[in-house]
Structure prediction request, 879 residues.
Amino acid sequence: MDQTQPSAIAFNYSRYAQRVARRDASLYERVVASIDERPPLPAWRRELATTDASTIDDILRRMRRELMLRTVLRDLVKAAPLDELVTDLSDFADLALTGATAAHSQTIFGSVQPPCGFSTVAMGKLGAQELNASSDIDIVFICDEPDADAMDSLNLLARRVTRSLNQEIDGEFVFRVDTRLRPYGDAGPMVPSLDFLEQYFVAQGRMWERLAWLKARVACGTLGPALAALTTPFVFRRYLDFDAVAGMRELHAQLRAEKNDANNIKLGRGGIRELEFGAQLRQLVRGGRDPALRAKPTVPALNALARAGNITATQAETLAQHYALLRRIEHVLQYRDDQQTQMLPRDAAERNELALALGFGSAAALDSRLERTRSDVAAFFDGTLTGAFGVSDDTAARIAASTAAPASAPPTEARVDAATLATAGYADAEGTAAYISTTLDSTRVRALPAASGERFRRLVQATFTYAARTPLPDAACKRTLDLLLAVASRSSYLALMIERPQVLDRVIDLAAASDWALRYVTRHPLLLDELMDGRTLATAIDYQAWRRDLAARFNAAGDDAERAIDDIRHFQQNETFRLLLKDIAGLLPLEILSDHLSALADAVVEVTLAHLLRAAKLPDSARLAVIAYGRWGGKELGYASDLDLIFLMPDDAVEHRDQLTRVAQRLQSWLTTMTAAGRAYDIDVRLRPDGAAGLLLSTVSAFAEYQRDKAWTWEHQALTRARFAAGDAATGAEFERIRNEIIARPRDWSKLRTDVIEMRARVAEGHPNRKSGELFDLKHDNGGLVDMEFAVQALVLRYGAVQPTMRADHGNIALAIRAGELGLVTAEAGLAAANAYRTLRSRQHAIRLQGAERAAVPLTELADERSAIRSFYDAVMAP
Prediction:
């Protein structure tokens, strides 16, 4: 061997490379002469396609010999990128499994394709396609619907494939093979069926197995999609999975007890395992809700976490660099003797040789770099274990204190006496103490498993302690206990509030501020995720970002309609809740909040309609528009408002009426169907021409004809609050033209006045105030919101022909003020009514946030506002 050649660096360090060179001189010469080339995997794949069981073992060992020699040289001499090296190693493992399976299947079954979908599942680093130089491969053989006769032959095939790779022949092997990750390990079936695997996941699956199956993929065989359908719900929970934090903590403690040698760069503190576990835990916690976080390789997983905002981009980049260093050290350790080792040498001379092979000037330089790297990795993982990633120092300290209790600690005492609550500031101390006891004694709590029961008691204790700091301790405590009881059977939600105590704090603050808001969270507990990030209040509202977000969710869902439908609900609930938090914090005036809620509905309908039209694969001429009416049309939506709408199509799309009608029906179904994720919106389409008896989808000309010749006055009233909201813009523009034309028509005031007054009376009859002697109904009583709305509609229809600015869909407040400015009423009356309407809407909103179904106040309240609106109504309706 020429010591002057660059390759001498590698051969001087790697005793394994020296052995290969002595054994196969021609291979040595060929590889050194083509040192820049990667292993010829395509040629090997073709060769293996014609190999039989009698030659497969020798051929694979010869291929592996070249693979390893090229890997050592390309790494130590050419500093090849780590991802190229691990990809080559992983691809060869897949190739070897495929070739061995085909060769032995031909012998056993007479076909290179074994029956019953026999497949080989790659786990661990092979599953993630980031295999080590001298790694073993973790695999699980699986099949589908085998009969008794086939099972014995499939087991034989699995054993022969394993032996071909694992058996040492003349001192060489292909891969060390470990099949113990299958259900029940060595005690389980060698080739479990998919049904067996599914039953095992449900009944026996443990935390460490979720981590293992996170990286699983079918390396050889046809059962990839079927396996993914089983493993995805096992690995990734549909809700936030903070159970995983506690499970990871226990698993890590076990591993630390077994392997805690500081020289082990894989299992020691700050080693490869901790970095991988830190990424995997974050994936488990959030991957059920965000499929983008399900990447199997470690570096892509870190990048996905950064894109999702779970770690910073800088942190992801730094950790990726640390991972590359640790993995390269692992490789170089294994190049020495082709041994599966992660132990840094204790001998000073050996350690110095390792450092030089890695390109460091000395062992001291290597040790210094390793110390910084492992310190960063350990901090990353420790933050993961406490659940404190991304929280304040104060919160992290509370988490650390709450998790430091010894395993033998006595159960938490969550009961409290009335005297203690009274001292803490509770007004109804007796009632709240009894409420706490009743909650703890409930059947649901008594039925909880021991771990969940302890979590529940700790949360109850934290609840009555923190609620004392709020303005309404009794209400905050009781409302929070109701939420805890509702989610008690979902251990992950309890774990979330234990692992992230600031979430419970924010729940209690929310409970003190709004009963309706807390009931909204109770109905949709996935929203607890939003309370983990205190930056929500500072995040700007971005309508276009809403559209991009929902469209991206649809793209990720692909053809999975069920997932897409749930994505709509999760998106709408998340954004509604973010607005609610800003609202309760006093950051959004009611009119701005209504604008945002209306814009959110616009975005949901627009993006969903576009998705459904694409899925229908209709020609470009098949166009559709959604017209918003009522509170949505007037941009006065509330949190629980229905969407009043109609569908229009251009006249030249009439030949596609049936297909477009199905799209419209599907849009309604996608938004209104109750699923496990709830309902996005209720929709009312009865304002279309001829109401419930009319066609769901009208042409523009038919709609115009109806409005001109058949529509009732109340339908023209409704038209004053209508606007184009989503779909084909040209059709929307045609609607706006028709709306303007209809509103601008001259009208007989006597008839219009009579029709409006009669309709107002019918509305009042439908909403009687049975406590009219005590309470004022802010919406339906005289001087209420409906009076204002009818008065404004009457003004628009009476004067639209001569006052073009009254035709604009600018909302009741702006139009009332404009009417005063135009002299249609006195300026004072218009302004007073507008201010009164704003006050009533704000009061109605506040009352509903406290959970009331109907907004009403004592008659002694809001008298001035009631008088202002009634005076405005009477002035408008004067003969």
User: Anything to note?
Assistant: The CA atoms of residues 439 and 481 lie 7 Å apart. The radius of gyration is 35 Å.
